[in-house]
TrEMBL record:
Keyword Flavoprotein: yes
Protein name, UniProt field: NAD(P)H-quinone dehydrogenase
Domain (FAD/NAD(P)-binding) ranges: 10-342
Taxonomic source organism: Leucobacter iarius
Pfam families, A to Z: Pyr_redox_2, Pyr_redox_dim
NCBIfam families listed in its UniProt record: PRK07845.1
Length: 479
């Protein structure tokens, strides 16, 4: 009779988002027997209703903005008028066609991921899964008109990666037509006449920027003094300035008490008694983890008060056989972090070499126009740790960068942080067109603890936006 040492390590992954996908793929690559349980589709909400479609929508808005800004480069588009004089054409956005493309792209990405897992040897089960103790998952799978079947999957290691859902408020209950969450935006048949966005965090700011660029009147209701309160203050100031330049109504220090349907739209009531009448309202007030009813507490898994799964730096929970990854954890809600958690969990479970995840090295990006990309220490974290006096920083405005001038994009900057004593690069902020691509160089510097002199000694193309990074590093040189 075969014992546990004669068979493959069994892994059950609950949820097929970025964390679950990477965990399943890593497990298969390392020779384990892997089962992935997913109720919607491989890729989860991140691919089907969140990251992929939203960033594609933002990319479409960026295309519109590029056309509008082309006049700064001397490019002008005209059509012949009835009187023979040229007439500048209007930019038309077919939102129904845009949304159809976004959702088709998301579905294609999900199919590609599904195919990759199957080719790697992962068994994929579609259904609702829950833990049955620390070493098994029970899956409810549909059985046609007959009802429901149950499949019990035993596992040596379980990875929970079930994501999160938009937070809903009783005073502003989404209806999918006028009061919306970010998952419901892709059902809109046309650009909203007037969209109120409640919440000025990353999600709210990104969608407010995109829909204003696409042609909607937008009012952004922010409870804070400045939009994007979690970001670098100088960076947030650039974005707020751009919002106002676009004609967005930014209502700072305002809190929405309720949102109700009217005959032709919505009525937003603020805590100070003011009201806003609009056609639609997007509620961007955070998210809640999809951990309820999964049998986590019964299995002994520790949860926070908010329902997030508590994990350590190798994605392990309070139960040795159970790991967790992604937005359902109390770590850091980014798709890239979820993916790293998934890989790290499997490598740790299987005894492979693993480096604990250091959040100081995580790159993040706000997909506004311009984008804000950050990595490592910043002014917030340095102040909280009382280390501001030990650090030095330098900012290079893009207004002095030759490539930025050439492409007509100069409202941004590169900011670099380093330890004063050693010159080691500890963080950076980039506000620029496609800052998400530019931040990689700084991410490498932070990850490998390069000094400002080492960064400055690297050759950058002239002219290039990356030249601003070496310029900032050169400015921090100390004898």
């Amino acid at each position: 009779m075969a014992n546990a040492f004669d068979r493959k390590h069994r892994i059950a992954v609950l949820g097929g988002g970025p964390g679950g996908y990477e965990a399943a793929l890593a497990g298969a690559q390392l020779g384990a027997e892997v089962t992935l349980i997913e109720r919607v589709g491989v890729g989860g909400a991140a691919v089907l209703t969140d990251v992929v479609p939203s960033k594609s929508l933002i990319g479409t808005a960026g295309g519109v903005q590029a056309v509008r800004d082309s006049g700064k480069l001397g490019v002008q588009a005209f059509v012949p008028g009835g009187d023979g004089k040229p007439v500048r054409p209007e930019i038309a956005v077919n939102l129904k066609a845009v949304n159809k493309r976004l959702l088709a792209m998301a579905a294609a990405q999900s199919d590609d991921m599904h195919r990759t897992l199957e080719q790697a040897g992962v068994r994929i089960v579609h259904g609702e899964g829950r833990l049955d103790g620390p070493n098994a998952v029970v899956v409810a799978t549909t059985a046609g008109a007959e009802g429901t079947d149950f499949d019990r999957i035993e596992a040596d290691t379980i990875v929970v990666s079930v994501g999160a859902s938009p937070r809903e408020l009783d005073s502003a209950k989404p209806d999918g037509e006028r009061i919306l969450t970010w998952k419901q935006l892709y059902d809109l048949p046309a650009i909203p006449e007037h969209l109120v966005v409640v919440g000025s965090g990353v999600t709210g700011a990104e969608f407010a920027n995109a829909y204003r660029t696409l042609g909607a009147e937008v009012t952004l209701v922010s409870s804070r003094e400045q939009v994007l309160p979690g970001e670098d203050k100088d960076a947030a100031a650039v974005i707020e300035r751009e919002f106002k330049r676009l004609g967005m109504n930014v209502m700072s220090k305002s809190r929405a008490d309720s949102v109700t349907r009217t005959e032709n739209g919505v009525l937003v009531e603020l805590s100070d008694g003011r009201t806003i009448e609009a056609s639609h309202c997007l509620m961007a007030v955070g998210s809640i983890p999809n951990t309820a009813g999964l049998g986590l507490e019964e299995a002994g898994v520790g949860l926070t008060e908010s329902g997030h799964i508590h994990v350590n730096k190798v994605a392990r929970t309070s139960i040795p056989s159970i790991y967790a990854a992604g937005d359902c954890t109390d770590f850091y809600p980014l798709a890239s972090v979820a993916a790293m958690q998934g890989r790290t969990a499997i490598m740790h479970a299987l005894g492979d070499f693993v480096r604990p995840i250091d959040l100081r090295n995580v790159s993040s990006n706000v997909f506004t126009y311009p984008e804000i990309a950050t990595v490592g220490w910043n002014e917030h974290s340095l102040a909280d740790a009382s280390d501001m006096a030990k650090a030095i920083s330098h900012t290079i405005p893009l207004s002095v960068n030759p490539r930025a001038k050439m492409i007509g994009f100069t409202d941004g900057f590169v900011k670099l942080f380093a330890w004063q004593a050693s010159g080691t690069v500890i963080g950076g902020v980039i506000v620029s067109h496609r800052a998400s691509e530019l931040i990689f160089g700084l991410a490498l510097a932070v990850e490998h603890r390069l000094t400002v002199d080492q960064v400055a000694s690297a050759f950058t193309v002239y002219p290039s936006m990356t030249g601003a990074i070496t310029d900032a590093a050169r400015a921090l040189h100390q004898r």
